[in-house]
Amino acid sequence: MVNKVIGIALILVGVALAVWGYNIYDSASSQISRAFSGDTPLEAWAGMVGGGLCVFIGLLKVK
User: Fold this and answer.
1) Which end of the chain is more exposed for a tag (fewer CB within 10 A), N or C?
2) Integer Rg of the chain from CA
């Protein structure tokens, strides 16, 4: 039972992180930065990849 609660919490945190990362990726300053230098902010990658990992681990715990 505790593993399922932890899994659900990880899924929720992972979705929130992924959305946060995408919001940073899609922000106006990030778009301008990508247009001139081609670099994506590290926070965007960390949020999206970290969120995906949290969701994946959460799904494993819920099973």
Assistant:
1) N
2) 14
* Other C-beta atoms lying within 10 Å of the C-beta of residue 3: 11
Residue 23 CA from chain centroid, whole number: 10
CA distances from 33 to 4, 13, 21, 46 (A): 41, 28, 16, 17
- CA distance between the termini of the chain: 11
**φ/ψ of residue 40, rounded to 5:** -95, 140
Name the token pair of 44.
């965007």
What is the percentage of the chain residues whose pLDDT exceeds 90? Answer: 75
Nearest-angstrom CA–CA distance, 30 and 24: 7
State yes or no: pLDDT of 41 exceeds 90. no
